[in-house]
Amino acid sequence: MTRALCVTPPPSPDQPPIDSLSRVQILAAIGITALILLLIARLWLWLDPISLLPLHLSLIDGLLGLGLGAAITLASALAYQLWPAYRRSADVYLQLVLSPLTAIDVLWLGILPGLSEELLFRGVMLPAIGLTGFGVVISSLCFGVLHLSSLEQWPYGIWATVIGLVLGMSALITGNLLVPLLAHIVTNLMSSLVWKLRQS
Questions:
Q1: Contact yes or no for 76/3 (Cβ under 8 A)
Q2: Domain CAAX prenyl protease 2/Lysostaphin resistance protein A-like: where (predicted)?
Q3: Per-residue pLDDT reduced to its tens digit, 105-125
């Protein structure tokens, strides 16, 4: 999942400088991370042969996923405006990850994490723990931890946990992995593309 819609200000004095990564390094990291998450999901299914949360092609659920993605993107933009700690956390991430990428590269940033994270957290982990509120909470906490790159990024870890709850509830209510999958991809794409457009 990507961070909020924003225009990145100059780094604040209380933030340590971060070494820039190249476009190739960022794209490689996206691909490797997606592959690792898919392998974890496959290993989990091998060790515990549970039924995956089904993915049904449905126009209504597809529209619901697209709408949910747009709503999450707007909520992220609002959190960026109203929560300074989240804004600082988002700025660090956006500058580091999105700056080297082209607009076409952002497609990979939207699709690969969306597919791999949803397959693991909502497709495998949620049914394995249980299709209940408890399962949604535990899988969302794990989702939040995945997005906690350092202790200084704690606001984004909290935000990712909240979004994990929303995505998990959408999976639980609809019984269709398509809804959180589309919502996640749309959120990543919209947030990233708007940021790139504002920078240019």
A1: yes
A2: 102-190
A3: 888 888 999 999 999 999 999
Confidence of residue 3 (pLDDT cuts 50, 70, 90): very low
Q: Answer with the residue of higher pLDDT: 1 or 138.
A: 138
Number of domains in the chain: 1
Give every CB contact of residue 144 below 8 A, 6+ residues apart in sequence: 157, 158, 160, 161, 162, 164
Res. 34: pLDDT tops 60? yes
How far is Cα 109 from Cα 99, in angstroms, rounded to an integer? 12
Contact call for residues 52 and 45 (beta carbons, < 8 A): yes
The Cα 141–Cα 129 span in angstroms is 13
As a whole number of angstroms, the distance between CA 134 and CA 64 comes to 23
- In contact, 176 and 62? CB cutoff 8 Å: no
**Chain centroid to CA 127: how far?**
19
Domain membership flag for residue 135: yes
DSSP label at residue 153: G
Note down the domain range covering 72: 61-199
Q: Token pair of 32, please?
A: 């490797």
Closest by alpha carbon to 178, among 66, 56, 50, 34? Answer: 56
Closest by CA position to 72, among listed 122, 117, 5, 171: 5
pLDDT of residue 19: 61
Quick check: is 15 in a domain?
Answer: no
Residue 128 has pLDDT above 90, yes or no: yes
